[in-house]
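Lab notebook, bench 4. We co-purified these components, and the gel suggests they stay together. Before we commit to crystallization screens, I want a quick structural picture of the whole thing.
Request: model the full complex, all chains together.
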Amino acid sequence: MLDTVLFYSFAVLVLGGGILTITRRNAVHSAISLIVSLLGVAGLYLLQAAEFLFAVQIVLYVGGIMVLFLFVIMLVNLDDAAKVREYNRQWIVALVAVAAVGAELGYFFHRGAASFHIAETAAAVPVAVGNTEALADSLFSEYLLPFEIASLVLLVAVVGSVIMAKKRI
Amino acid sequence: MNFLDLIWLIPLFPLAGAVLMLLVGKLLDPQPPSDVAVAPGVGQSGACAPHANHAHHHPGPLQNLIRLICPGMVLVSFIFSAGAVWQLAHLPNRLHQVIQFTWIAAMPFHMANGHIATFQVDWGFLLDPLSSVMILVVTGVGFLIHVYATGYMAHDNGFYRFFGYFNLFIFFMLMLVLANNYTLLFVGWEGVGLCSYLLIGFYFHKKSAADAGKKAFIVNRVGDAGFVLGMLLMLSVLGTVRFTDVNAALRSGQFPVEAGYGVLTAMALLMFFGATGKSAQVPLYVWLPDAMEGPTPVSALIHAATMVTAGVYMVARSSALFELTPVAGMWVAGIGAFTAIFAATIALVQNDIKRVLAYSTVSQLGYMFLALGVGAYWVAIFHLFTHAFFKALLFLGSGSVIHAMSGEQDMRYMGALKKKIPVTHWTMWVGSVAIAGIPGLAGFFSKDEILWQAFSSPKGSTVLWLVGIVTAAMTAFYMWRLMNMTFYGQSRVKPEVAAHVHESPAVMTWPLIALAAGSVLGGWLGVPKLWTIFGGAFRLFPRWLAPMFALAGSETEHPASTEWSLMILSVAVAAGGISLAYYLYSKRADIPDRILARFRPLHTVLYNKWYVDEIYDFLFVNGLGKGGGSAMAEFDRTIVDGGVNGAGWLTRTSATLSMWWDTWIVDGAVRFTSFSVKLLSYPACLLESGRVQTYALFMLVGLLAFLGYYVAR
Amino acid sequence: MHPVTTVHYLALSAALLLIGTVGVLTRRNIVVILMSIELILNAVNINLIAFSHAWHNVGGQVFAIFVITDAVAEAAVGLGILIALFRNKETVQADEIDLLKW
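Here is the predicted assembly.
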C-alpha cells in the first residue's frame, strides 16, 4: 500500500517535473523542474531496490549534471532567448506525431499486458548479497570491458567538451 | 700538407672574411650616427677625399680586428696558393684538377651536329701554370693592397664594408681563375663585376660615384652577353664547357683551322667581346676611367691589377680556340693595338692623376690583347704579371699622393712634392721607369717581348709593331709628364693644402716598397732570348707556361740583329719620351701652354676623350635608349597597338554575337534544365530545412511507421 | 487500487519518454532541448530498472549506469558545443542554425 502511494507520488513528481521542464519559458525554471523530475526518478529507483543507482542519480544528476546546466545557463546569456518565441513552427506536427506514437505505445500496453506476461512478478528469488555488492560484482567481472570503454568515452567527452568550449586552442 | 688537393680552400678564406665583415662588421666598427651627413665629398667641391670627414670619424678599438682579419685571410690564401704552386711544379704534367661535386646535374641536349651530349657543370678547381700565375698575382698583390688599404681607409666611414667587399672580390677573383670550366668561371666573372660595382660606388652618397658604378655594371653586362652567347655556342658545338675537355676536343684535329669566318670564329669573337667588356677594350672601355670614382685601393686592385685582366686570362685560357681561328686573332690584335694607342693619346692630356693612370691601364691592357692576338699568349700573361706590380704600385703611389694632398687629384695643383713625400716619390719613380720600358725593370721585358712578337710572329705585322712602339713612346711621355707635374718643377700646391702635406704612414709605404721591388725583379723571370748570358732561371716564365700553349710560339726565324735593333729602338723611344716630358714639364713649363694654344682643337678632342662618352650617349643612351624608345613607342602605338586594337574590336564584335547566343540559347538551355531540376527538387528541399529538430521529427515519424507496422500486424 | 506492477513503471517510462520527445521536437532553446534529452534517458533508466527488478537481474542496473555515463558525456559535449555555438553565432535558438542543408 505504501509502495503504491509512493509510486504514484513519485510518478507525479516525474511527469509533473518533466512537463514543467519542457514548458517553462525561463531556462532556470526548466532546470529546477528537471531536478524535481530527476529526484522523482531517484525515488523510483529506491522503490525498485536499486539503492546504488538512487545514490548515483542524486549525486551525479542532481548534484553534477544539473550544476553543469545551471553554469551554462549563467554563462550563456539567455535573457534574449527568454523573450522570443518559445516553441518552433513545427510544434503542432510534432505534437501530433508524438501523440500518434503514444497511441501506438498505449495499444502495445493494452495488448501486451495479456500476451507478453510482463505483468507477472517472477518468482521471488531472494538476492543472496546486498544490492550494491551484486552490482559491483557484475560490473567489475561480467561487464568489465564495457565499463572500461565507458570510462574511455567519458575521457573523450571531457577532452572534447574542453576543446569545444575553449576560445582558442 | 698536400696543398694541391686543398686548392678549393683558397677562395674560401677571403669568403669567410667577407661573410664575417658583411654580417657582423658593423659591430666591430661602429659608425657615427649621421653616416650620411658626414659622407665624403658631400659639400666639398670635387674632393673624393678619404679624409673629408677626418674630424668626424675616429676608428674604434675593434677596428684593429678588421685590420688583422681581412688582409690575414688574403695572406692565408697566398700561402696556400704558394704551397699549391710549389707542389704543382713537381707534377710531371703540371695540371691538377679538384672536382668537388656536380654543380649543375647532367642534362641531355642535342648538339649542333645532332649528337646527344649531356650538359654537366662541376664545382671544380683547376690548377695549371696559367691559373697558378693568376692566383699568385691575385693573392700576392691583393694582400699588399689590403695592407695599404688599412691605412688609406682608416678614417673612412664604412671601413668594415670596404673590407667586406674587398675580401668578397678576392673570393670571386679566385673563383674566376681557379674554375675548371667556363660556367664556373662565369660565376667569378659576374661576382667580380658585382664587387667592382659595389666598390666603385663605395661613396654612394656622391652621384658621380653611383653613376660610375652603374655605368661599369651596364657596360660589363653588354660584354657578358657576348660571353654567355660564346659559352652557349661552345656548348652546342663541343658539348662541354670544362677547360680540359674543350682544349682536348679543339686540339684533337677534329676541327680544322678556319680560314674565314666560321662557327669557331664566331665563338671566339663572342668570347672576346666578353673580354672587351671586362678588360676595358674598345668599344667597351668607357667604364674604366669613370671607375676611378672608387677609393684608390680599389682602382689599384680591381681596375688595374686583377679584375680587368680577367679578359686576358679568359682569352689565354681559350688559346686552343684562338689558335684555330686566325681571323678572330686578327681582330683581337687589331682591337688591342687600337685600344693601346687610342687610350694613350687620351692619357697624354689628362690632368687628373688617377685618370692618367686609368687610361694608361686601358692602354696596357691593349698591349696584352695585342700579344694574345698575335698568338704570344705567354707574353700576354707575362705583361699581365709585370703590369700587376707596376700599375698597382703607381695607383697606390697616386693614392699616397692624394692622401698627402688632402684629397687633391688635379696635377695642375701639385708639383715639387719630391722632398715632402720621398718614399712615395721613389717608389713611383721605380714604377714609372718600369712602365716606360727602361731595361732592367719589369715593364721593359714584357713590353719589349710584346713588340717583338707583334713584329715577328706569323700573325704579327709591321703595322702592329709600329702602333705598339708609338704607344710605348706615348706611355713614357705621359707617365713622366705625370711624374714631373707631381714631383718636380715648381710647386703649384694650394697654400691651404701645402701646410699639411705629409708622408703616408708605414702601413701604406711598405706595400709601395714591396711592389716597387716586384716591379724591378718581376721582369727577370722572362728576359729576352737574346740575352744569352743569363741562364735558364731567367727564362722561367716562358718555360713555366709552355705546356699551356702547346701550339704557340712557332715563330718565324728572324736574324738576331733585327731583334737587337728593334730592342734598342724601343728603349730609345722610351728614353725620348721621358726626356721630352722632363724638358716640357720641368725645364720649360711655358712650352706646353704654347703648344696647347696652337693645337687647341686637338687638345680639346683628346682632353674630352675623343668625345666617346658623348658619342655613346648620343648613339646608345639617347639614340637607342631614348630616341629608339620614342621610335619604338610610335611603332608601338601605330602597328602593335593598331593590331591589338583591331584584334580587340574583332573580339568585341564576335563577343557580342557570342554573348547573344550565350544568353538566349546556351544559358536558356542551362537555365531551363536548372529550373526543371529545381522544380522537381522542391519537395525534397522542404525536407532539408537544415534544422536539427525537423530531422528529429522525421526520426519520430520513422518510429511511428515502425511501430505502426507492429500495430497493424 | 491495483498493486504497482512492472507495467506501471513501463507506462510511466513511456510517458516520460513522450514528454522528453515533445521537448526535443518543439522547444527552440537548445539548453531545454538538452534537458529534454536527459528526460528521455531517464525514461530509459526507469525501464531498465523496472525489468531488472522484475527479473532479479542486476544487469539492468549495470546498463542504467552505462546510460548515466553516456548521459554525462552527452551533456558535457552538448554544453561545450552550445558554448562554442553561442560564441560564434550569438544565439541559442535551434531553428536559427540551419546551414546544414542542400
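Residues 59-89 of chain C form the longest helix (31 residues). Worth comparing against the SEC data before the next meeting. The domain at 6-90 of chain C is CATH 1.10.287.3510 (Helix Hairpins).
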